[in-house]
């Protein structure tokens, strides 16, 4: 029990640290309106054990919303059979043990996380299959296995975290002309709760690009750092809202992007002036 408590504390500390990268996480959005807006993210840390609904000023949103300072956010948690709700955390701090919790948007970013735990060893894959959740993703929805990837017996959990200096330096070695948008930890977990650093074979993953970073024609890619070595993972889909990449590694990831080059305007040349000579009448 102590181990689980310390694990939760470590995870909470990671989420707390995210406030320190408000300018990194939202490179232009956080200060574009001089503090008028707040990026609110809400998700279930263990979606296979429960799910959530969330609203901003009574308007439902999924995963994230760009709220105004002072907007009312209401989040509601529902736990699945043989599981227990362990509270709402906002930016890593426990705020409520009640399933329904409300707060006001404040600061550049608020991350509301519902935490759950399974009751003993009674939560098996067969129970999970009976629940109304995706067969390909039963953690949060930010990143999931693509249909047909063959990794249905694992969850993908994505947490936005501050990476260390050595990791950022590794990202920068392959950044090229891309901009660093956000950094994450991606975890692969079996229903038993065991985490895996690598998969048996590379899998196709679909990552939901944060709405505030989406832009028509913008080019995204992922960079993974595993044991100090960076690997560039190209986007293989044509969507402006998702990034599809292939990887077999858990651990540190960076979402990077660049805007497509705008073709230079071709200068308009005026029609050449044709000089006409005066007609000399014949004598």
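^ Assign residues to that structure.
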């Amino acid at each position: 029990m102590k181990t689980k408590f310390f694990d939760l504390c470590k995870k909470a500390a990671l989420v707390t640290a995210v406030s320190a990268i408000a300018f990194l996480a939202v490179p232009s959005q956080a200060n574009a309106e001089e503090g008028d807006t707040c990026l609110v993210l809400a998700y279930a840390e263990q979606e296979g054990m429960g799910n959530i609904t969330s609203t901003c000023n009574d308007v439902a949103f999924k995963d994230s919303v760009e709220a105004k300072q002072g907007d009312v956010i209401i989040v509601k948690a529902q736990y699945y059979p043989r599981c227990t709700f362990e509270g709402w955390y906002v930016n890593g701090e426990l705020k409520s043990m009640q399933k329904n919790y409300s707060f006001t948007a404040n600061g550049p970013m608020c991350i509301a996380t519902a935490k759950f735990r399974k009751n003993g060893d009674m939560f098996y894959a067969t129970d999970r299959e009976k629940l109304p959740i995706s067969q390909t993703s039963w953690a949060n929805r930010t990143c999931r296995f693509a249909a047909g990837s063959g990794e249905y017996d694992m969850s993908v959990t994505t947490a936005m975290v501050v990476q260390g200096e050595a990791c950022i330096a590794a990202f920068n070695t392959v950044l090229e002309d891309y901009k660093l948008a956000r950094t994450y930890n991606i975890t692969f977990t079996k229903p038993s709760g065991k985490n895996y650093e690598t998969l048996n074979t590379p899998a196709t993953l679909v990552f939901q690009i944060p709405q505030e970073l989406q832009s028509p024609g913008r080019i995204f890619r992922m960079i993974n750092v595993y044991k100090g070595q960076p690997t560039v993972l190209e986007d293989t889909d044509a969507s402006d809202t998702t990034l599809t990449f292939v990887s077999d590694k858990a651990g540190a990831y960076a979402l990077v992007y660049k805007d497509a080059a705008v073709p230079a305007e071709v200068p308009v040349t005026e029609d050449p002036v044709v000089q006409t000579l005066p007609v000399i009448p014949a004598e």
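The helical segments are 2-16, 22-25, 29-32, 125-129, 165-173.
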